[in-house]
Design a protein that fits this description.
Elements: E1 12-19, E2 26-34, H1 37-40, E3 47-52, E4 60-66, E5 76-81, E6 92-99, E7 102-107, E8 110-115, E9 132-140, E10 159-166
Length: 169
């Protein structure tokens, strides 16, 4: 699902209730890109990863910002590990609350990360002051999650119960 050209918004609460797949090589994500990406490119447009999971880390969700000078493996983020069980066993609510000069991450109502301009590497720019569009996808394989292996079963699916966006300051 990609809302580019259909919907974008600056600031607010962005959430989705999702049951992710399980298995090595699975890479579900709920994320946002700056709607100026066609004009300025990535990572200058900014990227907010609301939820990413890689199959080899079944109880862990990642929330990350990517921008100029802090992208790819140098993104500014944090992981959250479930207290028990694995993410694929149930639906979870993944969310960010995005305000001017702040992005805060939640899983099931529990805050686990907060980033402000003060957290960026020296000399880099905060690029989260314009509208972003939404993406939800399930990738298979890649440099970060690795490829599926003999332990991975198919078919796999990422089930999205809902996506909600609320206006904010």
């Amino acid at each position: 699902l990609k809302t580019e050209g259909l919907f974008s918004q600056a600031y607010g609460r962005f959430e989705a209730r999702i049951r992710i797949p399980r298995g090595q090589g699975m890479w579900p994500a709920f994320w946002m890109l700056g709607d100026d990406i066609a004009k300025v490119g990535w990572p200058q447009s900014g990227e907010i990863d609301i939820m990413e999971n890689i199959g080899r880390e079944p109880p862990i969700v990642h929330g990350t910002l990517h921008g100029p000078g802090y992208s790819g493996e140098h993104g500014i983020g944090r992981a959250y590990t479930l207290r028990s069980g694995i993410l694929a066993d149930d639906f979870h609510i993944y969310a960010v609350e995005w305000r001017p000069n702040e992005v805060v991450w939640f899983i099931d109502g529990r805050q686990y990360n907060r980033v402000t301009p003060a957290d960026l590497p020296k000399g880099t720019k905060w690029v989260y002051d314009h509208p972003f569009f939404l993406l939800l996808n399930l990738a298979v394989g890649g440099g970060w999650p690795g490829d599926p292996n003999a332990s991975t079963t198919f078919p796999q699916e990422m089930v999205v119960d809902y996506v909600r966006v609320y206006r904010g300051p």
